[in-house]
Amino acid sequence: MYLGIDIGTSVIKAALFDAQGHQQAEASERMSLLQAPLGWSELDGEATWETTVRVIRSLLQQAAIAPASIRGIGVTGVMVGVWALDETDRLLRPPILWNDARAQALVDAMVSRRPDLISSVFSHSGSVMQLGCTLPVIAWLAENEPDVLAKARHILTAKDFVRYRLTGAIATDESEAAMAPGSAVTRDFHPDQAALLGIGDHVHLLAPVARGETLAGAVSASAASQTGLVAGTPVAIGTGDTSACVLGAGAHRPGQAVSVLGTTCLNGVLFDRAVYKPRDLGLLFIVPGKRWMKSMVNVAGTTVLDWCLETLCPDIAAGHSPYETLGALAEQSPAGANGVSFTPYLSASGVIAPRIEPKARAGFHGLAPHHRRADMVRAVYEGLAYAIRDCFEAVGGARTSIRLVGGGARSPFWSQMIADVTGVPVEVPAGTQFGAKGAALCAAVAIGDYASLDEACEATFTLKARFEPSSATKPAYDAGFARFKAGSKAALGILRAVAD
Ligand code: ADP
């Protein structure tokens, strides 16, 4: 049995997997973000550890297994941010998370002095730097809370902190280091990036980088007494949540595509090398086991369905099985939604891929008096399927199939539509906790149960459902995609016209 622990922004999860990779038990607990000024995002770090302890205890109790049967443990979680420890290994301040935007003014000032800053960062990392990344947050601390940095001995991220509490080992992995931002080629931090962001004096605080599928240490006696795990159980380095989810979905071959259709919608393709195209767009994740995943995110994922339920279909939202009823309503309209389009930029931060426009917003287009609610609802589902195709076309690369995970993968109707719209087979893997599974697979390799992650992914993948693209709907969806592209262009054009 392998244990995977996943530290999410709002939920801490843990799951147990047997030798074949089947999920045997799962447990989770919600955590609240701290009250913080607008644009900040902070957690209570000690509460994160205490919640993790409770989740592990609850998992062990539910699974009713001897803790000694756990052969290895892997950790994953939200990436980057800053978890600063002092010399007594206490957290110096509430951890700052990936989605924190406090560094905005500082980064804007840097960019006004050096307009090619973001592009220079990208030329090493392959990712557009997010404000909540580790290095810009350190730059903010250097300016605003120098005492924190003066007292700091280590700067970690969420999963690194939890692994540290489990084992006493200070370490991070390649995915966090490259996204810090560092280098996607060396899969490590890079001194030029720290220099670009003016924090060269603080790089000694960053943790040593190791491969995700190697051992970090073992459960300490104190962590064992808190969690109920057995002291000495091996703990792997693990990896960031996106990479863990990719591995958990059994995706490891170059050319394999992955869509994570949750609250946001991430679409990536695996490569066997670092790719820097398209330039200045998207995120390049390091995946343990010598892979890279270039990805594009549509900020609104299943958010569009929840919005649709709340605003257009409160009657359905109040009933039984709202998602199934909503899907059945959409099916009353044919492929192409009778000409209605929905641009799915339903987010206060607009669109970030495959183009960047923070002011872009969602909208319906093409409505005429004969259209009915079913057409609008179908257009909402289709809008996201078109956005997925748009993201994949920007990433490029071969796409053998799309592994679809996240809440949206529960809908066979949407899964089939994504296959039809993209022309690529959609595969839904069995299981629910893919991040935890990816972390657990890192542990399985670290202890030598598999020779490589390629082998582990292959051996533990179970397909739940596969959807082949249909040629019958292709003309309607191709026309719909052309309308989507025109609508997306028009939405951005209106913005510019209004701004002028
Ligand atoms: P998160 O990104 O927060 O981890 P999940 O991947 O767990 O989210 O997805 C949760 C979302 O999935 C819900 O908010 C809902 O919109 C969507 N969802 C749940 N069930 C279905 C379904 N049967 N069909 C389509 N979407 C669904």
Give a written overview of the molecule:
The chain has 18 helices and 20 strands. With 500 residues, it is an alpha/beta fold. The protein folds into two domains: 2-238, ATPase, nucleotide binding domain (Nucleotidyltransferase, domain 5, 2-Layer Sandwich), CATH 3.30.420.40; 250-500, 2-Layer Sandwich (Nucleotidyltransferase, domain 5), CATH 3.30.420. The strands form six sheets. It has a seven-stranded mixed β-sheet with strand order 14-15-13-12-18-19-20, sandwiched between helices. A hairpin with a 5-residue loop joins β2 (11-17) and β3 (23-30). The model has no long low-confidence stretch (mean pLDDT 96). Bound molecules: adenosine-5'-diphosphate. The site of adenosine-5'-diphosphate has 12 residues, from α11.
